[in-house]
Design brief:
Layout lengths: L1 H6 L4 H25 L4 H12 L1 H23 L3 H9 L7
Helix pairs in contact: 2-3, 2-4
Length: 95
């Protein structure tokens, strides 16, 4: 699933941002619901908890995507020691 999300263009930084926004939205929904809902504090608490529960999921997906990004970077990069050894490797004439 994570590879598919990464191929679709979703990046870890986007998910970390979504987690932070979710926390802010949780606080905002609590204030808005508390002021404008006739149900009072109970409904405000429920809305804030509902929206706030998204943040850990976004952060967890962000961590998984970061691990995928690191794996992809690791596969693309040639270690510096390997590059240096390839430059020093003697060539055989006529082979």
């Amino acid at each position: 699933m994570i590879k598919t999300l990464h191929k679709m263009g979703l990046r870890s930084s986007m998910m970390y941002g979504a987690g932070v926004i979710s926390i802010g939205a949780s606080v905002a929904s609590w204030f808005i619901s508390k002021e404008f809902e006739p149900a009072g504090m109970d409904r405000a608490d429920r809305w804030a908890l509902f929206v706030g529960e998204w943040a850990p999921t976004f952060f967890a997906i962000g961590v998984a995507l970061r691990m995928e990004e690191m794996e992809m970077e690791k596969g693309r990069e040639t270690p510096e020691w390997q590059e240096q050894n390839e430059l020093r490797r003697p060539t055989r004439a006529g082979v």
